[in-house]
Design brief:
- The chain is α+β, with helices and mostly antiparallel strands and 188 residues long.
- Helix content is 43%, strand content 13%.
- It is built from 9 helices and 6 strands, in the order E-H-H-H-H-E-E-H-H-E-H-H-E-E-H.
- A 3-stranded antiparallel sheet has the order 1-3-2. A 3-stranded antiparallel sheet has the order 4-6-5.
- Helix 2 crosses helix 4 and helix 4 runs antiparallel to helix 6.
- The longest helix has 16 residues.
Length: 188
Amino acid sequence: MSYTTTSYGTWTNKVNSYSTSPDADVLDYIDGGDADWRQLLEDSGALAQIQDDYRAAIEAALPPSVSLCGNEFIGPRRPDEDEWDGYPVNGTGRLDIAACVGDIDLESIVERNDVITLADIGLHELESKAQNPSSAASRAMKRLGVKPLARVQLGGEGQPVSVYSAAQVREALANRPGRGARTDRAES
């Protein structure tokens, strides 16, 4: 392989002509969500993690000799004959970058990095009927050993609130004691 590199094009002209970068694609994706949720993602650091994970998925989908550097794809100036074996190519034998990254599931990356507050956990995950669902959620998270990712100020007022990984909360709740089939009874 030649170690001289060249530009293969930008995100805009190789993947998405309506976007300037993968980071902008993430912002466009979450833009349809509630404004408070979007702010929570940003304030907790989850948005940056989603963007990092999306870029990592893009890098993993590309051949080892090609990278996304900022918003530009860089690769070998003169690739070896077998350089793109196993990767999609266009009619002229050039690497088809859009096809390489086309199957990346941004939704699953967002879901994996989604965050929720104690109020969300109490009301939606636990479906608590308690007078203060946040307190019930706080006790449940402590019992299950789930720690908050961050404390953020919501709406610029009041006390900061704890923010949790939605995936971690859901996994802990699904695996908590007392869930599933009882093993202390004999089958009839």
